[in-house]
Amino acid sequence: MIGLIVRRFIQLLLLLLGISFLVFMSMHLAPGDPATVIGGPTATASDLEAIRKDLGLDRPVLVQYVDYLGGILHGDFGYSFQTNQSVSDAIITRFPNTLKLATASMVVAVIIGIIAGILSAMKQNSWIDISSTTFALAGVSIPNFWLGTMLILIFAVNLQWLPVGGLSSPIYTIEGMKQLILPAITLGTASAALIARMCRSAMLEVIKSDYIRTARAKGVKQKSVIWIHALRNAMIPVVTVIGINFGGLLGGTIITEQVFAINGVGRLMIDAIAARDFPVVQGTVLLVAAIFVIVNLIVDIIYAFIDPRISYD
């Protein structure tokens, strides 16, 4: 296990290095000029040149990249072109909202997905199974921005049960929980559908195994057979989907944060892209990539606890 963690850590560093290079180059080679955005329509050619020199954009791109890597090694991700705020401070300020949204969405997805998957497997080809399949298809197909808008229209505008958006209240308060409900459902629906389908497939395969028939023949209660014997052995592919989706949720909150006016990392990234704010875009992308790899490492470690037969030697 220690060897696995060391190998994955090395892979993490190499992956982040490659991602940083691709993002850095793509941002600098894409059309548009940060100096033009900062200077505005009234800026003269000399003004734009002075802005580029002040930001260090007049140097060769590779030189800028090497300097950027040197800053990262010292924990310096640069400063925003727009606000002159430290990128690290900007991310730290907004990341809690994104983490709360992604975690709440994952909780919704896991609860709905696993319960729907188990019921669908136990009632194969029944109306429950058909409903679960329809839900999965709809969950994957419906765009987040449309679903979020419809939920706001129904539950916030018409019924006035829940707030329209924002995460201004602490999560442990009633108001904070209310603010999370609609965005969590919006973001977690697609993941719930994928988890439900994977859980159903895994459960259908497991409940046909010999040890499940043996447990039933010995008189083990149905609940114990499902929740203790079958579900644990069916969780390996489900945990994989959960891990991948959680990493994806952290990077996929962009649209949901826009719809619900949540001041998170996704919204920070969108604003930075629009303003050609290179340091902020690079910092947010590296954060999402690092979290995605770390989550997958955690998933691999969880495998060994779910099924001790798995070896990483």
Automatic annotation (TrEMBL):
TM ranges: 101-122, 134-160, 180-199, 285-306
What does the UniProt entry say about where the protein is found? Answer: Cell membrane
Recorded coiled-coil stretches? none
Report the superkingdom from the record. Bacteria
* Predominant place of localization: membrane
In this chain the ABC transmembrane type-1 domain maps to: 95-303
Entry membrane topology? Multi-pass membrane protein
Alphabetized UniProt keyword annotations: Cell membrane, Ion transport, Membrane, Nickel, Nickel transport, Transmembrane, Transmembrane helix, Transport
For the keyword Transport, the answer is: yes
Q: Which PROSITE patterns match?
A: ABC_TM1
List the GO molecular function terms: nickel cation transmembrane transporter activity
Cellular component (GO) terms are:
plasma membrane
Q: Does the keyword Membrane apply?
A: yes
Q: Which family does it belong to?
A: Belongs to the binding-protein-dependent transport system permease family. OppBC subfamily.
Quaternary structure, per UniProt, is: The complex is composed of two ATP-binding proteins (NikD and NikE), two transmembrane proteins (NikB and NikC) and a solute-binding protein (NikA).
Name of this chain's protein: Nickel import system permease protein NikB
